[in-house]
Write a structure and sequence with these properties.
The protein is mainly α and about 200 residues long. It has helices spanning about 1-25, 35-65, 75-95, 100-110, 110-130, 130-140, 140-145, 150-165, 170-205. It has one domain (about 1-205). Helix 1 (about 1-25) packs antiparallel against helix 2 (about 35-65), helix 2 (about 35-65) packs antiparallel against helix 3 (about 75-95) and helix 2 (about 35-65) runs parallel beside helix 9 (about 170-205).
Length: about 200
């Protein structure tokens, strides 16, 4: 118990480092020749990193048997929402200057922005319901709702892929990692079904 609390605190501090580093660079006016693009890329990178990391916690638990690691999932997911919100605010405030008509056109006409908004919207709903009250209120529906994190992960990877267009090295790597997590999940479900089927066969024989 003490070990997971220590890991949680250290992980919390580590997840804050990118935001603090960005703040320091902004204070020192060290955001490259194109600050808006730099902040957009930087916050986007950390959004997808935190989101994919949160999706990797359940496969890690199943592959290692370390059940306590699941206690880190909510915090890492909330950091994905935090960096995703910074990413969105960069676009709203620094890129579009609160021009909502312009933003609306962008969402409709540029597919990578459309799917990026979908990813953020899912993260918003998940962050809003990531508390004990929502867990009790929604019951079994809570787990079904929070499986949308996988949809958010797919949308985030597609958003990144469509954005970069030419050099797809990084989004392709994230896609491979996400595919691996999906494979572990599918394998686990099939494994449970096979175990049940085998047990029923033994009982019938």
């Amino acid at each position: 118990m003490k070990r997971i609390l220590l890991i949680k605190r250290l992980l919390f501090l580590a997840a804050l480092v990118p935001a603090l580093r960005l703040a320091v660079r902004a204070y020192n006016l060290d955001l490259t020749a194109n600050p808006v693009d730099y902040i957009t890329d930087y916050t986007g990178d950390w959004t997808i990193a935190c989101l994919i990391a949160s999706l990797g916690i359940t496969p890690l638990r199943r592959l290692t048997g370390w059940n306590e690691v699941v206690k880190l999932r909510r915090m890492v997911g909330l950091f994905a929402f935090f960096y995703g919100t910074l990413h969105l605010l960069t676009w709203v405030v620094l890129d579009k200057f609160f021009d909502f008509a312009w933003m609306y056109e962008d969402i409709l006409e540029r597919p990578f922005i459309t799917i990026g908004m979908l990813a953020w919207s899912i993260l918003f709903v998940l962050a809003l319901t990531s508390n004990q009250y929502s867990i009790r209120r929604l019951g079994r529906r809570w787990q079904k709702l929070h499986r949308l994190a996988y949809v958010a992960g797919i949308c985030a990877v597609i958003h990144f892929w469509w954005l970069v267009k030419a050099d797809i090295t990084l989004p392709r790597r994230w896609a491979v990692v996400l595919a691996f997590f999906f494979s572990v999940r599918i394998w686990w479900v099939l494994r449970k079904r096979w175990a049940v089927s085998r047990k029923e066969t033994l009982l019938q024989s």
